[in-house]
């Protein structure tokens, strides 16, 4: 694996899930793999789970991780536009910074959220693409403007780990209310991975005018009727997202879309997932989060093993990038 930006970087999802589960059972088995290697983590936006699970995964592989919070002025404000006249707030161009980072590190990771103002700009994934172009080393997305591949990989791992029946599970991605316009990354990415995986009956439910990009949802059953969607579900993945067509807006905030025990009773005693952080009693009810059907803690804990599987694949594909650069 040369990079991890989307599901397209994974040759075999089931093999990767097996690898992640293997690391869960044997965390330190490849402690030698990352010896004398360094991973750099650039955060342009906040994180708890992604930041810490990636660092734990790197440590399990014997790598040193170094983190730079670009978002809180720890690092210089970076410019990503080609040909920019840098007379504003940005101080350093990625063209100048990325090759240096490429010499410091063996793998480079970046988290960057969309602005939710200009769809074409956000969906061009300029920041990640510029880092790939100019760093010259493998880049891992820790969530980009449009996708969150480490989360989705973990989500499929968690479904495979917990589903013990012989039939295809029914997995429902349901929109939930929120007070702020939220990026599409988790929902886009979950849909992209579920459709690529193809081993579930995958349904998406959301209010009218909350369609996601067809690029990611194509292949799923889509309905505005949440009750209908929830019937016989084995897994319910709860997530808010803002509008896509009329980009980055909130049209709907009806609490009836928030999953509770009554709506859960329509399902096949479904397990409930959420990437976290979650606004309790806005996006997801206390009764669900505190109840026996919630697997959000397992899901978040599994982030370590998914990240470890990804980093291991990259290290194996490029066993000594430092030497290659010399
Ligand atoms: N789910 C997730 O990515 O969590 P963080 O934003 O805390 O990293």
Explain this structure:
- There is one protein chain.
- The protein has 326 residues and is of the alpha/beta class.
- It has 2 domains: 7-147 and 302-317, Rossmann fold, CATH 3.40.50; 150-300, 3-Layer(aba) Sandwich (Rossmann fold), CATH 3.40.50.
- The protein is 37% helix and 14% strand.
- It has 14 helices and 11 strands.
- The chain has helices at 13-25, 49-60, 94-104, 119-123, 126-135, 149-162, 185-197, 214-217, 226-230, 261-264, 286-289, 296-301, 303-317, 321-325, and strands at 38-43, 64-69, 78-79, 92-93, 107-111, 139-141, 170-175, 201-205, 221-223, 235-239, 271-273.
- The chain has a 5-stranded parallel sheet with strand order 9-8-7-10-11. A 4-stranded parallel sheet has the order 2-1-5-6, with helices on both faces. A two-stranded parallel ribbon has the order 3-4.
- Strand 1, helix 2 (49-60) and strand 2 (64-69) form a beta-alpha-beta unit.
- Helix 1 (13-25) crosses helix 6 (149-162), helix 1 (13-25) packs across helix 13 and helix 6 crosses helix 7.
- The mean pLDDT is 96.
- Residues 47-51, 143, 151, 275-277 line the site of phosphoric acid mono(formamide)ester.
- The site of phosphoric acid mono(formamide)ester (CP) has 10 residues, from helix 2.
């Amino acid at each position: 694996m040369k990079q991890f930006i989307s599901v397209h970087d994974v040759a075999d999802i089931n093999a990767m899930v097996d690898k992640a589960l293997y690391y869960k059972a044997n965390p330190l088995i490849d402690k030698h793999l990352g010896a004398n290697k360094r991973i750099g983590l650039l955060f342009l936006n906040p994180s708890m789970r992604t930041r810490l699970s990636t660092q734990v995964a790197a440590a399990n592989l014997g790598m040193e991780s170094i983190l730079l919070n670009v978002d809180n002025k720890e690092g210089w404000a970076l410019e990503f536009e080609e040909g920019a006249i840098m007379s504003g707030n940005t101080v350093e161009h990625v063209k100048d910074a990325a090759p240096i980072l490429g010499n410091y590190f063996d793998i480079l990771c970046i988290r960057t959220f969309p602005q939710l103002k200009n769809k074409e700009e956000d969906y061009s994934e300029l920041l990640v693409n510029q880092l790939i172009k100019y760093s010259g080393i493998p880049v891992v997305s820790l969530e980009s403007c449009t996708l969150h591949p480490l989360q989705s990989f973990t989500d499929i791992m968690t479904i495979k780990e917990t589903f013990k029946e012989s039939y295809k599970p029914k997995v429902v991605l349901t929109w939930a209310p929120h007070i702020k316009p939220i990026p599409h990354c988790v929902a886009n990415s979950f849909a992209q991975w579920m459709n690529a995986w193809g081993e579930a009956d995958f349904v998406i439910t959301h209010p009218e005018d909350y369609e996601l990009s067809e690029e990611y949802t194509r292949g799923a059953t889509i309905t505005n009727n949440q009750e209908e969607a929830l019937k016989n579900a084995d897994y319910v993945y709860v997530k808010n997202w803002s509008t896509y067509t009329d980009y980055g807006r909130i049209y709907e905030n009806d609490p009836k879309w928030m999953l509770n025990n009554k709506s859960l009773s329509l399902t096949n005693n479904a397990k409930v997932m959420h990437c976290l952080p979650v606004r309790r009693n806005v996006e997801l009810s206390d009764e669900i989060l505190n109840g026996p059907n919630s697997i959000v803690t397992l899901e978040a804990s599994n982030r370590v093993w998914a990240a470890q599987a990804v980093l291991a694949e990259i290290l194996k594909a490029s066993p000594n990038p430092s030497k290659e650069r010399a």
